From TrEMBL:
Origin organism lineage: Bacteria, Pseudomonadati, Pseudomonadota, Betaproteobacteria, Burkholderiales
SUPFAM superfamilies recorded: S-adenosyl-L-methionine-dependent methyltransferases
Gene name for this UniProt entry: metW
Ranges in a coiled coil: none
Protein name, entry field: Methionine biosynthesis protein MetW
């Protein structure tokens, strides 16, 4: 599976012409894809200098901010879509960031490694922490503060008054809707304030 295919599947959730904020945008690949294919505009937020340079080279508007400090600089509903792809597991105050995502955007889209994917469960049952394409780090050198599951996010969304508009897993570059908590390595949720 390619990371590019994952991005293309997530890009399908973003309406054409949307104003987008991508939190933890990396090198800006998704924002560039949304700009070029769907006429979207917006900004990326990234802290890593190397990734900021990649954004600039792609012609992506990017702000260097630490997401741990929140999104106070953005007004309510100032974006159509706020993306938070593969970054929730790196943030200490996940609930606050999730509420801020819903406040700043009319729609939020998150994705994260699904720790409940069956190969991860098997590795844990064998006494080891999983190391996979989606979770590529050993337990002692991971940038992840936490791990989560598809099922856990459903509970977190309800607890924070969010309405899930769409949810699925991704495995092997394909959408998984049947038993995604078990069968998908990546969880994806599209939501709005309830």
């Amino acid at each position: 599976m390619s990371e590019r295919k994952d991005l293309e599947l997530i890009a399908e959730l973003v309406p054409a012409g949307s104003r987008v904020l991508d939190l933890g945008c990396g090198g800006g690949e998704l924002l560039a894809l949304l700009r070029d294919r769907k006429g979207c505009t917006g900004y990326g937020v990234e802290i890593d200098d190397t990734k900021l340079l990649a954004c600039v080279q792609r012609g992506v508007n990017v702000l260097q901010l630490n997401l741990e400090e929140g999104l106070a600089m953005f007004e309510d509903a100032s974006f159509d879509v706020v993306l938070q792809l593969d970054s929730l597991q790196h943030i200490r105050n996940t609930e606050t960031m999730l509420r801020e995502t819903a406040r700043v955007g009319r729609i939020g889209i998150v994705s994260f490694p699904n720790f409940a994917h069956w190969p991860n469960r098997l590795q844990v049952a064998l006494g080891r922490m999983p190391v996979t394409r989606v979770l590529p780090y050993e337990w002692y050198d991971t940038p992840n503060i936490r791990v989560g599951t598809y099922a856990d996010f459903e509970v977190l969304a309800r607890k924070n008054g969010l309405q899930v508009l769409d949810a699925f897993g991704i495995q092997g570059g394909r959408v998984v809707r049947r038993r995604p908590n078990l069968m998908a390595s990546v969880a994806v949720f599209k939501f709005t304030r309830g």
